[in-house]
Amino acid sequence: MISALYVDDEPALLEIGRIFLERTGDIRVDTAESAPEALKKLRSATYDVVISDYQMPVMDGIAFLKEIRTENTHLPFIIFTGKGREDVVIEALNCGADHYIQKGGAPKAQFAELTHTIRRAVERKRANDTILHLNRIYSVLSRTNKAVIHIRTRHELLDEACRIAVEEGKFLMAWIGMADPATHQVHPVAACGYEEGYLSNLSITTDNVPQGMGLTGSAIREGQPMICNDIRSDPRMDRYRDEAARRGYRSSAALPIRNGDSIVGAMRFYASEPGFFNDRELELLQELVEDISFALGLMKGISGGQLPETP
Question: Sheet holding 251-259: strands in order across?
């Protein structure tokens, strides 16, 4: 499903456009009657594409585009307007618009063109994102494997794994938590990235209680990866949503760390963009954490699910 934000100061045209676009069954449309209203929606929801008129009061389509590009350089943006002047087209494309479509003619034909353009822009963005994400994670996997071979202490390995995830994988933050077998509490033992006190706000258990319903507690308790591709809307992030938003965390994943048949902890990743974790990326991250688990299992003190000493 493609999530689109359609912006125009003509309510009737907005409604017609929404009906035409949603008839396809694979596009969901939110509307806004001004650029300032649209900017508010962009701060509280996630969209795959923005369609905007050019000539609007308060803020025209070019100014709106410039404002978006200060925070999001890759969100597909389509100018859909009756203004067909060459200078407007050139300025729109120079400011980062992905496509420019001129209104006019039969509504069915022009909205069919818009539908095709939306799909093409979103598919291209998703393909580029996938390539970029996979390259980053391949780099993380390769560097971590080298660390596994050369590092001989648990604390150095865990610290290095988090550092590589942030520096090579471009995650905003990564941390590793180990579960205390006596209390079932999960204690951070390594972290890197833009944390700014986030971990001090955590109270996580592996028990089936509210403090254990987040991604980390669930991953350890169930022995399965836990993915949140939209922190803003995922109920599992209710306890930490505001703190995550302050640090720019938009999606996250927790993967269990094993010692033989036992789950002893989890590695947590935070990305700055929503929808980061797809199936292929999850496979690579699982391979990464399995390598870390294997190395920890060979190091003294991890046997029996013991909690590693706090760094």
Answer: 186-193, 173-179, 262-271, 251-259, 226-228
78 shares a domain with 44: yes
CATH code, 176: 3.30.450.40
Verify that 294 and 157 share a domain, yes or no.
Answer: yes
The answer to whether residues 259 and 116 touch, using CB atoms and an 8 Å cutoff, is: no
Q: Supply the DSSP string of 96-155, one letter for each residue.
A: T-SEEEE--S-HHHHHHHHHHHHHHHHHHHHHHHHHHHHHHHHHHHHHHHHHHHH--SHH
Tell whether the model's pLDDT for residue 261 goes beyond 90. Answer: no
Give residue 286's Cα distance to chain centre.
18
How far does CA 234 lie from the centroid of its chain?
12
Paired residues of 227 in beta bridges: 253
Domain carrying residue 238: 151-305
pTM of the full structure: 0.67
Tokens linked to 224: 């399965």
8-41 pLDDT per residue, tens: 999 998 999 999 999 989 999 999 999 999 999 9
Q: How many domains does the chain have?
A: 2
Contacts of 140 (CB under 8 A, 6+ apart): 164, 165, 168, 169, 284, 288
Per-residue pLDDT reduced to its tens digit, 164-206: 999 999 999 999 999 999 999 999 999 999 999 999 988 999 9
